[in-house]
Amino acid sequence: MAVNPKAKKGFIEILNGNKKGEQIEILYFPPEYSFEKSNTFAEISIPGLEAPYLQYVKGNTGSITLEAFYDTYEAGTDVRDFTKQLSDLMNIDPKIHAPPNLHFIWGMSSQEPFACVLERVTTRFTMFNSDGIPVRARLSITLKEFKIGLNERERVVESSDRTKLYVTKQGDSLWSIAYREYGDPALWRHIADANKIHDPRSLEMGMELVIPSVE
């Protein structure tokens, strides 16, 4: 697949379902993405005031939007082999009876990944070979933030009452291991600290990690 030298790489990691642990590479160009977060306020009218009183109601889920770019012209292959990997994330996984939960990981950042589901994807094919096979595509992607329910988190954390060992597999990350072991990717620092891992992206296949209990 040809790579635009100005494009930036990101990854979507599948957290559950039949393809749990798999990663899908994303090339996004222009090299930018947008993050949106909002709050909901209720307007309470009070006689004698020129403007209503604002009462905070709730925070709304955040979302990331970006443009992905794929080009298989030089390879002469069907670009849908790549775009289908993303669009399939909209489908119901038979193991969990819902589309999978995901992590969006951008570049080589050590920041915690964005926990999300794929809310929307629009694919636009912009070039075809002489046989009519698409070889270039742009995808408009919207990722919607998700949070693990409090009851589920408590149930999973309480079951992690003893230290154990875990051998890393291809595609593993500290976030996916924390999600698998604790039910919460935000607890990845427990694993990093227990194994003296300073760079969370330095995992290699076959590493033996201590998975500490969660108090």
TrEMBL record:
SUPFAM superfamilies: LysM domain (SSF54106). InterPro entries: CIS_tube_prot_N, LysM, LysM_dom_sf. Residues 164-211 form the LysM domain. PROSITE patterns: LYSM. This is LysM domain-containing protein. It comes from Methanomethylovorans hollandica (strain DSM 15978 / NBRC 107637 / DMS1). The lineage of its organism: Archaea, Methanobacteriati, Methanobacteriota, Stenosarchaea group, Methanomicrobia.
